[in-house]
Amino acid sequence: MAFNFKLLFRLAYKALFASRGTHARLTLKRLCILLITTVFYVVLEIANWIGFFLDRILFPGYRRQEIRQPVFIIGVPRSGTTFLHRVLAQDEAQFTSMKFWEILLAPSVTQKKIFKTIGEFDRLCGSPLYRLVCIAEKYMFKSFSDLHQHSLFEAEEDGHLLLHIFSSAIIFSVLPFEEELLPYFLFDMELDAVSRSRIMSFYKRCVQNHLYVFGKNKQFLSKNPVFSTMVQSLDETFPDAKFICTVRTPFETVPSTISMAARYFNTFLNPLEPYPFLDGLLKVLSCYYNYPLAKLDALPPHRQQIITYSALVERLAQTVSDLYARLGIPMNPAYSQILQKEQEKAQRYKSKHSYSLDKFVLTREQIVKKYEDIFNRFEFEKVINPPSQS
Question: pTM score, two decimals?
């Protein structure tokens, strides 16, 4: 059984009986959030696992679905992974990615077929359901719109699939118990081989399900910062996989990630301090910087590329063209035109996510010291004007 019941029961016990004096303390707000998320999760997973069961009866062909040369975008949060993912996902002749509705609501083939049929019928009727969902999601995701543009209909992080087996680092936002969940952030380094195999087998099945319905002859395109510490496991599961790692100066990624994490913690918890779990977050960010770079350096050139954030923003079209050439991916003329338009948009883009390093108990000197190897390797400026946006 892929589902991690042991972790579920341990975290449930700690959330209810061992949270006093912690960031997860039981306040009225906290109890309401736990109740709502529990009901939603139980109903969702019952539907998902019924779908997985029906797949074996109705669509057994998913097991034979090939996964050829999948592409994984990794890197520290706030380093341009989402931007690159959504740019590459527009090459629909070459790639296919999971959209958020599929990741969250339809991981099985059966569910995908059902939702696909509903979508086709809705379009025939003038898309009233689609418009209603778009209105609803603007309200649902409004408080996080300056951090990350969420939409059920956009390509999104498919690492959220691991929520369906209760084996995802993302659980930490709601159940923040470091001793239990830190190994899922440091996947290859701290999870045991049996757990890694169980998780990767489930993830592979979900990728097969997606390709079976949406792109049998396409390359699967994935973006997940949390996969930065899963390069070895991904390489073992998908031996012909290609990896793209985005890198940005720690002066921008570190405070921006701290700010983003604090927003999520303050939404789902009643933390005892403004920026909780700072030491653990800095440890994870160090691994997200260093581990994938070490692993990618050991791969042949045609299977990996490292891209800086400045190259993405300043020279998008050329950077993506060079990426395609290095990884052996053909580029069609229609996509070349899309790249030019995306480059113009990138150069005009202004982030709405504001932060200041002065807010954090962390100096610029400490950042340079902690990430000195990154500053040196990519020749990032060590003394620059403090960033104000990400």
Answer: 0.93
